[in-house]
């Protein structure tokens, strides 16, 4: 008899943590008790589900509480992470059973949307998730930006250097400001940021009038090697150029900067004559693109949308509470969702998510088999949900 329940505190040490360590860590390795105790503490805000059979923990799946900007509205989001089944119990449906419970639990917790990084997208698509574009990596030699070094300091913001741990508070404050304007951007609950500090990184911060206006978390592989940055975060052009100038100061120390940028970034236009390689490699399980799902259609009130009104019928087999008929209409450019309507547009949850996030055209939704509706309804949906490029940012 399988029992699924939430686990917290020291019970994690004998249930969820060994399962996810076997799946995601190099092994076998000696047990560093301090590391595990730190994880127990860092995960207090997570909801960690474990499936037991005859008292034995066999599979686990966690939800990290986050918020996400979806078309301008900040929504409660569940980040599904650390899905793992013991090798003796694989391919028996444990992950599937856990996922169904996790969806229900996120719904009960009031989360409106969910995101995850799939081991195989087709597995999660059957749970109502749809793919988002993956961020790109831009690579260039910092020598090419050397012109900026000779320009007067007054043209740039002041840049300081610390460890990520020491500058984390300022970094996070900046990210919460940027999240307000970045479609798709998720940020974990402040109580769940502890494990981010385990990443050893430098943090360059750009300051203006006592406020942090830009941030660049990075590591250097070796002398003559790469400077690898998780992203270049800036509130405006001046802050961005100040951080690019910081990179220019690494000319002759590193031969390449590798910088994560949103899928729609065009770094070739940042600087004249910049030779840059922009690459997006999508390959599971390690270089996977994220996926998203809507858990509560009624929670989408307030999204910034186009014009018009469409009646949809969402058939949600993996989370029935999220299905049904809804009227989606634009009131002064903001989405209003009410239960009811004619249900003329049939959608699967994946089809609905793809439209809400703006990643597929309605014609593609029909083509994938994620919806049934005619050309007139396609046009109505195209007008209501214009294409958009979400950038999730959080990785988990
Ligand atoms: C990925 C992982 C969590 C799957 O767990 P699982 O408990 O084996 O998953 P399930 O049994 O629920 O289903 C997985 C697949 O096995 C299939 N399956 C389940 N029972 C089966 C059976 N008796 N015979 C044949 N196939 C079966 C499922 O249909 C599914 O395949 P499909 O996607 O082609 O339909 C597990 O393999 C694992 O821990 N891997 C390492 C860590 C990892 O990759 N985690 C995911 C990070 S997102």
In short:
This protein has 396 residues and is of the alpha+beta class. It has helices at 16-24, 33-42, 94-108, 121-125, 164-179, 237-248, 349-357, 362-367, 375-384; strands at residues 2-7, 47-53, 56-70, 73-85, 113-116, 130-131, 136-140, 158-163, 186-188, 202-208, 211-220, 226-229, 233-234, 256-261, 277-279, 291-294, 309-314, 324-331, 334-339, 345-347, 371-372. A hairpin with a 2-residue loop joins strand 10 and strand 11.
Describe this structure in words.
- Helix content is 23%, strand content 31%.
- By secondary structure, it is an alpha+beta fold.
- The protein folds into 3 domains: 2-116, Gcn5-related N-acetyltransferase (GNAT) (Aminopeptidase), CATH 3.40.630; 136-279, Gcn5-related N-acetyltransferase (GNAT) (Aminopeptidase), CATH 3.40.630; 296-384, Nonspecific Lipid-transfer Protein, Chain A (2-Layer Sandwich), CATH 3.30.1050.10.
- The strands form 3 sheets. Strands 1, 2, 3, 4, 5, 6, 9 and 16 form an 8-stranded mixed beta sheet that branches.
- It is globular and about 65 Å long.
- The structure holds coenzyme A.
- Coenzyme A is lined by residues 23, 59, 83-85, 90-96, 118-119, 123, 285.
- Coenzyme A binds at residues 23, 59, 83-85, 90-96, 118-119, 123, 285.
């Amino acid at each position: 008899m399988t029992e699924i329940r939430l686990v917290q505190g020291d019970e994690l040490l004998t249930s969820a943590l060994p399962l996810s360590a076997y799946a995601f860590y190099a092994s076998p390795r000696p047990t560093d008790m301090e590391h595990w105790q730190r994880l127990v503490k860092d995960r207090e805000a997570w909801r960690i589900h474990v499936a037991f059979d005859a008292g034995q923990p066999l599979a686990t799946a966690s939800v990290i509480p986050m918020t996400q900007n979806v078309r301008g509205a900040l929504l409660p989001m569940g980040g599904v992470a650390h899905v793992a089944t013991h090798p003796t119990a694989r391919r028996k449906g444990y992950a599937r059973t856990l996922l169904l419970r996790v969806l229900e639990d996120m719904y009960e917790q009031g989360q409106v949307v969910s995101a995850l990084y799939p081991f195989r997208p087709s597995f999660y698509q059957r749970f109502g998730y749809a793919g988002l574009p993956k961020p790109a990596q831009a690579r260039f030699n910092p020598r090419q930006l050397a012109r900026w070094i000779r320009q007067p300091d007054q043209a740039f913001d002041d840049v300081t250097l610390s460890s990520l741990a020491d500058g984390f508070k300022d970094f996070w404050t900046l990210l919460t400001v940027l999240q307000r304007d970045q479609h798709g951007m998720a940020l974990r609950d402040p109580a769940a940021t502890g494990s981010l500090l385990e990443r050893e990184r430098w943090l360059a911060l750009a300051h203006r009038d006592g406020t942090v206006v830009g941030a660049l978390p990075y590591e250097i592989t070796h002398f003559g090697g790469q400077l690898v940055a998780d992203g270049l975060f800036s509130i405006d052009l001046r802050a961005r150029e100040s951080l690019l100038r910081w990179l220019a100061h690494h000319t002759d120390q590193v031969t390449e900067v590798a910088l994560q940028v949103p899928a729609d970034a065009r770094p070739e236009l940042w600087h004249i004559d910049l030779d840059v390689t922009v690459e997006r490699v999508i390959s599971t399980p390690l270089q996977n693109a994220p996926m998203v799902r809507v858990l509560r259609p009624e929670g989408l009130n307030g999204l910034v949308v186009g014009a018009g009104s469409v009646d949809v019928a969402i058939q949600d087999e993996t989370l029935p509470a999220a299905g049904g008929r809804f009227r989606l209409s634009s009131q002064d450019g903001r989405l209003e969702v009410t239960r009811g309507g004619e249900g003329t547009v049939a959608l699967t949850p994946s089809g609905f998510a793809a439209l809400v996030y703006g990643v597929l055209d309605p014609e593609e939704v029909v083509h994938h088999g994620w919806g049934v509706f005619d050309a007139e309804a396609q046009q109505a949906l195209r007008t209501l949900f214009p294409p958009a490029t979400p950038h999730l940012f959080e990785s988990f």
